[in-house]
Amino acid sequence: MRVGTTGRVLHDPKGGSFRFDAGAVCLDFAHTGGEGDYAVFESLHEPADLAEWLAQPPLDATLTVPATARDLTAAKALRQAIWDAAHARAAQRPVPAEAVATINRAAAATPFIPELAADATTAAWAPPVRATQALSALAREMIDLLTGPLSGRIRECASDNCPLVFVDTSRPGARRWCAMERCGNRHKLRAHRARRATGTGS
């Protein structure tokens, strides 16, 4: 995977979009849609949508074996498990057993095999490249995240009505918002208005 290329553009069904970097590819994947109230944010409608997402950096997993409906079902189950696990860790609650089992099951699949190009300066994934391998990579990254040094930095956006979750990879560990241009600026605007209303600020 390429370094420093996490993050995706998220689209609000009510209009507008913004770039959100969850700090880990597995957490970016967790924000591709969801169940219940989050179904309106669904972006993986067909197996082809899953294949397109996986082909983007940093995974760069251009599938040589077409994704199937079964792959899509497995991807959505893993996505929900990552979401549940991240929110549990952010809230300092035990990770649900079902999420643990789903992540472990995905991680157990055969992983990608890197293949060095003839000029020995670039590499790609050796074919065949399957969706299950990509899901395995995402699950393994989530396992590393939950058990590694950044485990305590998995956080939910500090906004009262934003459920986006991220891992704070900044050196000071002071990240509070999903994105400064979204919830961070909204918070600043509300605080400014509150100060003006109480006469404590300009």
Automatic annotation (TrEMBL):
- Record-linked InterPro entries: ABATE, ABATE_dom_sf, Znf_CGNR
Give the top-rank taxon of the lineage listed in the UniProt record for this protein.
Bacteria
Zinc finger CGNR domain boundaries: 153-196
Note the PANTHER family from the entry. BLL6575 PROTEIN
Name used for this protein in its record: CGNR zinc finger domain-containing protein
Q: What organism is this sequence from?
A: Actinomadura fulvescens
